[in-house]
Design brief:
6-stranded antiparallel sheet; Methylamine Dehydrogenase, Chain H; 39% strand; mainly beta
């Protein structure tokens, strides 16, 4: 693997790369003890990109893998009791909106560009890249205010708001598209689109779809990834009283035609990374993979509330839960339990049917566990130390890498790359339309 990696790096310096979409580097990023690190897939070259003064609480790769955006605590807030006792989400490592600054930096380090200067009076989310890799979207709220919310779109190379635009109000995280670069949002008047620069608001529906505003995880409008003329996906109530007990997942094509893909008790939905399937989770904890004609491709009974990670080629799906890690091959339907803490499957926590309100400050996972060629991935053990009948007790908790064979089988036992208090890890860019909200 080391020889292949070196060959790819050499080729990336020339006119072509090893495979379509290859990033030019294979470094993996992770957050440990408030520091941002990168490391090579063979465990060498560990490099501290940003220290913990102030602490790093979130990071994500640019689409070309040359830049990282990271969030650092406001220095005053970091010294407060709340700042010293942050509680990241146990599955994703995400930290909620808080007083912080945003920065971009090259993969090899250097001087970060402060995209947003921190303030103790302003709470800010992580930032999400657009597919073109030249803009960043983030959310601002005023500390102590339940009503003030603002979405901002900033250039990735301009400091302190020099090239930042405030977007029109949206009930949900705006969807950043490729192709024409349009932005999708939703407010009290209906679904709307914007240009890539955040201007030219245009209405796509007359009024809100039935049931809106829906709970936060269902309020989204999502561009179809990797399409020159993308459709978009959204949910509407399927109940006469407009409740969210049952919703219809609707696909609106570029022609304006609206197709109902599914009626379900859905709690989350997102696209596959290749834009050819839709993933949804239902109230009973099932995961459904839908074809674009509305037919059911797969039903998956993994652990409820797992975090989905699609491979870049759309073939594989990882479901990363509190107790288990599952690998699903979408082509063959094969479902493999890779990792567990030996909790009996029948005792795993049932799905939580309570949906977050429309005002919940949720966010997508900003980076993927997968390598760009979809043949390797990384994961954090978090106490899950039983790997396909074997034990990882000797190596212990940490950040591991797995390589897959041609038929989607792990080729060897996982390889330990790093240990310590690691809260987040990402190998490649992940579009926000592919992630559930947490």
């Amino acid at each position: 693997m080391t020889l292949v990696l070196l060959s790819c790096i050499v080729l990336a310096l020339g006119p072509s790369a090893c495979s379509p979409g290859y990033s030019g580097t294979a470094k993996i990023a992770f957050v440990r003890d408030g520091q941002l690190w990168t490391i090579y897939p063979d465990g060498s070259g560990a490099y501290q990109v940003a220290g913990n003064t102030p602490p790093v609480v979130g990071a994500g790769w640019s689409p070309d893998h040359h830049l990282l955006v990271f969030r650092t605590l406001d220095s005053d807030y970091a010294q407060s009791a709340a700042g010293r006792h942050l509680k990241p989400d146990p599955l994703t490592g995400l930290v909620s909106d808080l007083p912080a600054g945003l920065n971009t930096v090259g993969v090899d380090g250097g001087f970060p560009i402060p995209i947003f200067f921190s303030s103790a009076s302003v709470r800010i989310s992580d930032a999400w890249w657009n597919p073109a890799g030249n803009r960043l979207l983030y959310r601002l709220t005023l500390s102590g205010s339940a009503s003030f919310l603002r979405w901002e779109l900033a250039q990735n190379d301009q400091p302190g708001g020099i090239a930042t635009r405030t977007l029109p109000a949206s009930l949900a995280i705006p969807s950043l598209g490729a192709g024409a670069g349009d932005i999708l949002g939703i407010d009290e008047r209906g679904l709307f689109s914007l240009s890539a620069s955040g201007t030219g608001q245009r209405w796509l529906t007359r009024g809100l779809p039935p049931g809106h505003p829906l709970p936060a995880t269902l309020e989204r409008v999502l561009w179809q990834p990797r399409q020159a003329q993308p459709a978009f996906l959204y949910a509407a109530s399927a109940e006469p009283n407009g409740s969210a007990a049952r919703v219809a997942l609707l696909l609106q094509r570029p022609t304006g035609e609206v197709q109902r893909l599914l009626t379900c008790s859905c709690q989350q939905f997102a696209w596959s990374s290749d834009g050819q399937h839709v993933l949804t989770r239902t109230a009973d904890g099932s995961y459904l993979v839908l074809n674009l004609d509305g037919s059911l491709r797969l039903t998956i009974r993994a652990e409820a509330d797992s975090v989905p990670y699609w491979s870049p080629d759309g073939r594989f799906l990882l479901l990363d839960g509190r107790h288990t890690l599952w690998l699903i091959d979408i082509q063959t339907g094969r479902q493999q339990l890779l990792l567990s803490d030996r909790t009996p499957l029948g005792q795993l926590n049932p799905a939580n049917s309570k949906l977050p309100g429309v005002a919940a400050r949720l966010q997508p996972v900003p980076a993927s566990l997968w390598e760009a060629d979809s043949r390797a991935f990384v994961f954090l053990t978090r106490g899950r130390l039983w790997w396909q009948g074997g034990s990882l007790l000797r190596e212990g908790n940490g950040l591991y890498l797995v390589t897959l064979g041609e038929h989607g089988q792990p080729q060897a036992a996982p390889h330990l790359l790093a240990s310590g208090a690691i809260t987040q890890v990402g190998w490649t860019y992940q579009e926000s339309t592919v992630s559930f909200l947490f």
